[in-house]
Design brief:
methyltransferase; CheR_MeTrfase; transferase; single chain; 2 domains; alpha/beta; Rossmann fold; S-adenosylmethionine-dependent methyltransferase activity
Length: about 270
């Protein structure tokens, strides 16, 4: 059975969610959110949006599943390896000049990007004086990130990515395999702070030398993208760096002139004023 979502009903549902739960999806890209809502409804065999709304507003467990569906959780270790190679080649020397290095990975999903950065920092002898803040709106994803346990089936891809990103050791040194899963070494997360943070509603909470937010703002409308870029600008120290996803840009951001491209291809920017 096909499902269509009326614009006004859609807006009404998101406003109800914001009022009841405090989650604001109203400025996410509408087509993307509608697609995810329809996928969720089909899985639950719900074919009317008003029925979905009533269920979400009375059942917090179902609502948590709904947030999981709407949150962007597609990720992998050293995703887009040339991005990490660029950090090694172009940023590490500058980052090494700070006595304490603060890094914010915003929208960290299930944490693969966090462990990737921790491994890179470890190999560049920076991890011990780094604090990585790993945040996401999705509590279930954050719990996965905290545990650092992933499927063994992904390790071939992750190993290939690691090597392409300039990895200096054997990737298998960083995890222990057991049955069909691997657990990443706990030393990689000793300097990581996992915490919920909502880019839509929450404020800056520290000053950072590097902020990484890849493949997240592409799901926001232009107004929300602007606000999030403003948040990152406020959160960066002078000459701090911002890394975005390969389909993302500062081209239409109000603060675009406040950044300089460090690596145009890899979407790495430096705050210059």
């Amino acid at each position: 059975m096909s499902i269509t979502i009326d614009h006004n009903e859609y807006k009404e549902l998101l406003e109800s969610i914001r009022f009841i739960y405090g989650y604001d999806f109203t400025e996410y890209a509408e087509l993307s959110v509608k697609r995810r809502i329809i996928h969720f409804m089909k899985n639950k065999e719900i074919y009317a949006l008003d029925k979905l709304g009533k269920l979400l507003l009375k059942d917090e467990r179902i609502f948590e599943e709904f947030v999981q569906e709407l949150s962007v959780t597609v990720t992998e270790m050293f995703r887009d390896p040339t991005f990490y190679k660029s950090i090694r080649d172009n940023l590490v020397k500058r980052l090494a000049t700070y006595p304490i290095l603060r890094i914010w990975i915003a929208g960290c999903a299930t944490g693969q990007e966090v462990y990737s950065m921790a491994i890179l920092l470890k190999e560049e002898n920076l991890l011990e004086r780094s604090i990585i803040y790993a945040t996401d709106i999705n509590q279930k994803s954050l719990q996965t990130a905290r545990e650092g346990v992933y499927s063994l089936t992904n390790m071939k891809l992750y190993t290939s990515n690691y090597l392409d990103a300039g990895g200096k050791k054997s990737f298998s040194e960083y995890y222990m395999a057991k049955y069909s899963s691997v657990m990443f070494d706990k030393s990689l997360r000793e300097n990581v702070v996992f915490s919920p943070h909502n880019l839509v509603a929450d404020q800056s909470f520290n000053e950072f030398q590097l902020i990484i937010c890849r493949n997240v703002i592409m799901y926001f409308n232009q107004n929300l993208q602007n606000r999030v870029v403003d948040l990152f600008y406020e959160s960066l120290c002078p000459f701090g760096f911002l890394g975005l996803g390969d389909k993302e840009s500062l081209l239409f951001a109000d603060k675009k002139d406040y950044f300089e491209e460090t690596d145009k291809k890899e979407k790495i920017f430096m705050k210059i004023k």
